[in-house]
Amino acid sequence: MKDIESLELTKQRQSVLQVIRESDKHLTANEVFDGARRLLPSISFATVYNSLRYLKQEELIGEIRFDTGAKLYDRRLTRHDHAICDDYGKLVDLELPLPDELLEVAADRSKFKVASIELTLRGLCPECNHE
Ligand SMILES: [Zn+2]
């Protein structure tokens, strides 16, 4: 991971990146805004939002999109998979081995040159699945 100081980023982008890197969970834009405001009280939501777009484009953060249009921001940049709890939306990281065959089938069916595949598991997390 590159040093935040060594990147040529504005103060605003630096604080947004810092919030994401220091968090151990996946953050919504609103949560990033709350954190960034603690570092830089004058920052606006629009600036945070634009910074997120910029950081994503520069591949300094990861982004997870849901079918609902919601997005979560992720400090982990290497390929990984996620599991989402249907009950309260908790999201955790996990790594699943992908068989080469899956990549081949995916490439064949989509006609895409496949760069990566990320899987999202849905179900109930251990806490919700108690009874
Ligand atoms: Zn993740």
Your description of this structure?
The chain is α+β, with helices and mostly antiparallel strands and 131 residues long. The chain has two domains: 64 residues, Winged helix-like DNA-binding domain superfamily/Winged helix DNA-binding domain (Arc Repressor Mutant, subunit A); 43 residues, Dna Ligase, domain 1 (2-Layer Sandwich), CATH 3.30.1490.190. The strands form two sheets. The chain has a three-stranded mixed beta sheet, with no helix packed on it. It has a two-stranded antiparallel sheet with strand order 1-2. Helix 1 crosses helix 3 and helix 2 crosses helix 3. It is globular and about 50 Å long. The chain starts with 10 loop residues before the first helix and ends in an 8-residue tail after the last strand. The mean pLDDT is 91. The site of zinc ion (ZN) has 6 residues, from loops. The site of zinc ion has 6 residues, from loops.
Bound molecules: zinc ion
By secondary-structure content and strand pairing, the structural class works out as: alpha+beta
State Rg: 17 Å
Low-pLDDT residue intervals, each spanning 5 or more residues: none
SSE sequence, one letter per element? HHHEEEEHE
CATH 4th-level superfamily of the largest domain: Winged helix-like DNA-binding domain superfamily/Winged helix DNA-binding domain
